[in-house]
């Protein structure tokens, strides 16, 4: 018994000592000379944590508290505020046992919710039919919730909030229809439907991640079904997968176009890589990089590399061609550096790239009609104090018809700013001497014309030519007898080249041989001219009361005399002679195959003339406030020609007449040109090529061209109708007003445009049979309804009686998205294109549906 009591006493003491040890406070570090009391007299009390982290504020028209069940019921205009959340509903219940807040919208007599629950958190509003929130876990569940995110709205059958940043939704629809968002319409005109959606929200951005998702238009499902989708909602750029379009083409099979990935790179770059895949073996890879530095420069680099496969391998119709395209554009901001500018426009393609391309866009924008492609890179240097501008450049030009490529690399031009040769004595320049100006500079060029497969090979470098040219131009002018302007000018050209031409007759092969020799040679030429010009005015007035009040004629005649010596004379050494296959002594220039051109042959002492005319007419007009309207009969009408006194034969040149005018309030534009041969052309019996005789006075048409352009529109022909006064009632659909007559037919402004272009060209020269080119082109559009538009273009060849390039297009405005259909029914490329594009910025590239196909050339459509 004593042992047991002693044992219990020891256990009690141990427990007391242990508890006393645990209850002690950790000593704080005290300053020196301060004694710390090791015994704490303060007891530690453990307070039970409250169920709520904040005060729960409630109000309602009717409140009831069930104390035994720890329940609170709020009816009519009920509101609960807790932390940053506010719940407004017709009915709210609060369960303290389960830490649960439940809210329900207002019911009608049939039990249908007619007013939603509105939950506001962190400035965002959510509308639901029913809503429950756990104050302890901070998780929520909502039914028929409506959530707005960055210009779009999500309506989900069931939404579960796991945290402030993660929401899971079931059977959800997403749309960017503004009318549905603003509740102007109870149904959206389109939506994307997914069985499961996860909304992820962060401080800077939000995004939707879905499983299989399908597009509905007017509640009708479309073939656009995607296995997944990632839609970012952020003002900042975000990486993501680019959704492809799909379809079928007869020549290349089924395809996926534009499958790719977008990746922003830092602050100034982004990269987009697209791939096109075809079931018959064709493929395309299209990377694109954009860069931008504000107030400095911007640019884009794109490439298009692929292989086109047609037919079945092993059969005769099987073809496989590789194509490529490399493009680069660079633009410098004008404010970045006014003394040094750099620009680039590079577009290099393979010869057959535009011939039946994989990408249908090249057909619709008519790139398939390109016959050549040009590229250029330019650097320009200006100086603050030095009066000169230095320009360095490289250019590349491709000719798809001949397969030749012209490369100029590098080129340099130094231009000296124009300056006066003599100073003015009085500060006002007078006379010929004080008005003498000098323009000079030089140009260095390296040029080669070669085949595409020879680029940057030894064969290309062997054909490369280098040329240096310098031009000095002097000019002056003065006024004679108050009404005449007298001008004098002189030009001096200097040139150097690294290659010259040697011609000779090879008796063994019996052919004329042209041999390019590698040696440095040059020439200098000069010419001078003098001109006299004046302006004459004439006015023809008509009687008072006439429709035509006056005709005004302005004439600008000018005479000029040009002189240059004969640089083909043996003393200059620029020309040589050789005996051709017929034994005739034939002169040629050693520079005629070179990059710097050839000096002129023969003495030129030509008197030239030009007569410019401008004719206007004044007519009465009730529409003009002055009562008079000016009509331009000829904006310009010029006659020009020259007579060479030094010529041994045919001193007269071909006469040229050019005219330009516009009619019908400057709508109809007319441009004409006419070439007249002053000498008689003699044709031998049966010959198709004539000979120019010395018989003057037989003016024959050698060339004629006329171009007409007339833009028509509903505004020109139709008077504006006051629909409000003419029709008794009106209605509104999507902010568009319709006016209805007594028979309830709708009326609206059916705007239309039609541009007519016509061209006729005739050229004859010394041929017996001339060549004709004649065509008529039409392009325009018409609004069938305020939301349906038809547009198209076509060209008809009047000579061959064939339709050339023709395109027909339809477009439909569907409030929040557009539908476009384009069709090329004729010609080598028969293609149609169907496109649906969402107007919302966040979906304009991510969501689109295209279905494109076209048959092979010349196959029945």
UniProtKB/TrEMBL annotation:
Residues 208-679 form the LPS-assembly protein LptD central domain. GO terms for cellular component: cell outer membrane; transporter complex. This is LPS-assembly protein LptD.
